[in-house]
TrEMBL record:
GO cellular component: cytosol
GO molecular function: sequence-specific DNA binding
Name of the protein in question: Lrp/AsnC ligand binding domain-containing protein
Keyword Transcription regulation annotated: yes
Gene3D superfamilies reported in the protein's UniProt record: 3.30.70.920, Winged helix-like DNA-binding domain superfamily/Winged helix DNA-binding domain (1.10.10.10)
Segment forming the signal sequence: none
Gene Ontology biological process: response to amino acid
HTH asnC-type domain ranges (all copies): 6-67
Keywords per UniProt: DNA-binding, Transcription, Transcription regulation
Top-level taxon in the UniProt lineage: Bacteria
SMART domains named in the record: HTH_ASNC
Length: 166
């Protein structure tokens, strides 16, 4: 996996937009002491190299009727069906995350259901037919921590020392 060099300006921009994705570029420019055009160019660069992955509104699942959040470990009968299972999981709207994992389980998913009965239907009607040997489900009562990776904890680079000298 490639890492991209981030200078102190990039890190400051990332801190600001991570805190508020709707912050106007001119406000970012003022906070960073650079022009609006410079911020626009940096934001474009950060998007082009994949550091920024778009912006979106975050919908609270519970507010729209999805009261059950569950994590499900999937154990495939045939591990060679991995790609086919992932393609099928992408078609299940309640599945919001899918991770390939180490250890005994093949995949680990996060999904939302209206309630426990709906969760059981998803597992029985949508997951089991994918060729599972078994699954393990954990229901989440609440998320005690739900945040972005903190920008201030990014590694310090020698180039930042040069930036500070200017």
């Amino acid at each position: 996996m490639s890492h991209h060099h981030l200078d102190s300006l990039d890190k400051k921009i990332l801190r600001l937009v991570a805190e508020d994705a709707r912050i106007p570029f001119l406000e970012v420019a003022r906070a960073c002491n650079v022009s609006g055009a410079a911020i626009h160019q940096r934001m474009q660069k950060l998007a082009n190299v994949g550091v920024l992955k778009g912006s979106q509104y975050i919908i609270d699942p519970e507010k729209i009727g999805y009261e059950t959040c569950a994590y499900v470990g999937l154990y495939l009968k045939d591990p060679e069906s991995h790609d086919k299972v992932i393609a099928a999981l992408k078609k299940i709207p309640e599945v919001v995350e899918c991770h390939a994992t180490t250890g005994a389980m093949d995949l680990f998913i996060k999904l939302y259901a209206h309630n426990n009965h709906h969760l059981m239907q998803i597992i029985h009607d949508k997951l089991q037919p994918l060729g599972l040997a078994r699954s393990e489900t954990t229901i989440s009562f609440s998320a005690s921590i739900d945040r972005q990776l903190p920008i201030q904890d990014l590694p310090h680079t020698a180039d930042e020392d040069e930036d500070d000298d200017e």
